[in-house]
From TrEMBL:
This is RNA polymerase sigma-70 factor. Belongs to the sigma-70 factor family. ECF subfamily. Residues 120-171 form the RNA polymerase sigma factor 70 region 4 type domain. PANTHER family: RNA POLYMERASE ECF-TYPE SIGMA FACTO (PTHR43133), RNA POLYMERASE SIGMA-70 FACTOR ECF SUBFAMILY (PTHR43133:SF46). GO terms for molecular function: DNA binding; sigma factor activity. It holds the Pfam family Sigma70_r2. Gene3D superfamilies: 1.10.1740.10, Winged helix-like DNA-binding domain superfamily/Winged helix DNA-binding domain. Residues 25-91 form the RNA polymerase sigma-70 region domain. One of its GO terms (biological process) is DNA-templated transcription initiation. SUPFAM superfamilies: Sigma2 domain of RNA polymerase sigma factors (SSF88946), Sigma3 and sigma4 domains of RNA polymerase sigma factors (SSF88659). Keywords: Sigma factor, Transcription, Transcription regulation. It comes from the Bacteria.
Length: 179
């Protein structure tokens, strides 16, 4: 068959002539593949782009301008499809990075938060009145019961409970105010 001119190609494409599609696919797909490969540097992706461009040509055949050479249309469509694919991949990578940053804190971040919280905790403990701090430390750090603390410090068990309540309240408020 003789080579088709641009008008014959556009008419054939608009009429969804499979023979014309086969001719232009065989004629132009290698150059389209080269363009896509230059942009994407991935053999399979480049083949997908060529297929996508021809599928889009089939779907939008009625919109073809017969004055524009088909090879220019196919080249431009290939470049645009490649650029869209690259932009989409970049958006997906950016989204993944953002998700990783917000989804789960790193071990280093958690350790830093723990150290800051511990420093705040000890700072609040140091500001407690002496007897209150001593009762709290005996209860929490030495594991003594309120009765044992009362006996060792020679104070009533109710005083031990009052000191513990006061200490816990001040620690809780201190940590909340620092956040």
């Amino acid at each position: 068959m003789l080579p088709l001119n641009n008008t014959d190609i556009v008419t054939g494409v608009r009429n969804r002539d499979k023979h014309v599609f086969e001719i232009i696919f065989n004629q132009f797909s290698p150059s389209m593949f080269s363009i896509a490969l230059r942009y994407l540097r991935d053999h399979d992706e480049a083949q997908d782009i060529v297929q996508d461009v021809f599928m889009n040509l089939w779907r939008t055949a009625d919109n073809l301008d017969e004055r524009a050479p088909i090879q220019h249309y196919l080249a431009r469509a290939t470049v645009n499809t490649c650029l869209n694919r690259i932009k989409k991949a970049q958006r997906q990578q950016q989204y993944s990075r953002e998700q990783q940053l917000t989804a789960e804190p790193t071990v280093e971040h958690l350790l830093l938060e723990h150290k800051e919280l511990e420093a705040q905790y000890h700072s609040i403990l140091e500001k407690l009145p002496e007897q209150c701090r001593r009762v709290f430390e005996m209860s929490r750090f030495k594991g003594l019961s309120p009765a044992e603390i009362a006996q060792q410090l020679n104070i009533s068990i109710n005083t031990v409970y009052t000191h513990l309540t006061t200490a816990l309240k001040k620690i809780r408020l201190g940590l909340l105010n620092q956040q």
